[in-house]
Amino acid sequence: MNPADIPGLPSAVAVHLAESGVEKLYPPQAAAVEAGVTEGESLVASVPTASGKTLIAELAMVSSVARGGTALYVVPLRALAGEKKAEFERWADLNALDVSVGISTGNYEQSGERLASHDIVVATSEKVDSLVRNGAPWLERLTCVVADEVHLVDDPNRGPTLEVTLAKLRRITPDLQVVALSATVDNADEVADWLDAELVQSDWRPVDLRTGVHFGDAITFADGDRREVPVGRNERPTAALVADTVDDGGSSLVFVNSRRNAEAAAGRLADVTADRLSDDERADLADLADEVAGVSDTETSDDLAAVVREGAAFHHAGLSAAHRSLVEDAFRDRLLKAICATPTLAAGVNTPSRRVIVRDWRRYDGEFGGMKPLDTLEVHQMFGRAGRPGLDPHGEAVLLAKDHDTMDDLFERYVWADPDPVQSKLAREPAMRTHLLATVASGFARTRSGLLDFLDRTLYAAQGDNAGRLESVVDDVIGYLVANDFIQRDGDGITATPLGHTVSRLYLDPMSAAEIVDGLRGADDPTPLGCYHLVSRTPDMYELYLKSGDRETYTELCYEREAEFLGRVPSEFEDVRFEEWLSALKTAKLLEDWASEVDEDRITERYGVGPGDVRGKVDTAEWLLGAAEQLATELELDCTAAVNEAKRRVADGVREELLDLTGVRGIGRKRARRLYEAGVESRAALREAEKSVVLGALRGREATAERILENAGRRDPSMDGVTPAEGSAPDNGDARTGGTDASAPAGDETDPTDQQASLGDFG
Ligand code: ADP
Question: Ligand 1, residues 24, 54, 56, 61: which to mutate, most atoms within 8 A of Cβ?
Answer without folding.
Answer: 54
